[in-house]
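Troubleshooting log. The previous structure file for this entry was overwritten by mistake, so regenerating from the original sequence record. Sequence copied from the archived sheet and checked twice against the printout by T.R.
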Amino acid sequence: TSINEDREKQKERVYEARKRIAGNIEKLEKVLTLPKGKELFKAILEARAKYIAGQDQLIKLIEENGKDAESKAFLQNELRPILGKYQESLRNLVTFQVELMDAANKAAAEQYQQARNLMLILVIASILMGIAIAFLITRNILKQLGGEPAYAAHIVQQVAEGNLAVQIAAKTGDTTSMLAAISGMVAKLSSIIRDVNTASDALNNAAGQVSATAQSLSQSSSEQA
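Regenerated output below.
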């Protein structure tokens, strides 16, 4: 009785293991998408079916009294080779999946390296573009100013303080910059001021002549009186 109970427990363990393996195989089937993986999975199913059939045959021989020698011979000579092929089919799928993961890791590493190189190229290109833009902007500003910003600010300050005698060092042929415009403005203002001074001197002379004439008339009038 004790032997029979032990056999029943062992048989239950075998069936429970089958059930767990069947659940794992069902999950495994859902994640296999490549043809090679499906082919290896099919080999596993075929090997498992033979192994289960062999297990059932062994259990039947064990449950039949007086066939211990036959059951041991079946286990050793027939079931173990079937189990070996079953395990080999499992190892083949595992090896295939490991190779896939290695290939995926390698591809990911290559993509990372490519992305990193591309990022470095973009950063360098951005820096060079920024330098070029800054150079063009600076060049354009200097062209518009007609000289260095500090020098242009000094000239503007001098003119604002009324110094129209300031010497403006404009570039030869420069007619469009701010310094060239200030130089022209200073020249016109100086010309206007000279004209005003000349007119003022003429008015002063005329006023003197009028005053002298008035004095002469006044003296003549007094003499006549």
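The chain has a mean pLDDT of 82. Archived copy saved in two places this time.
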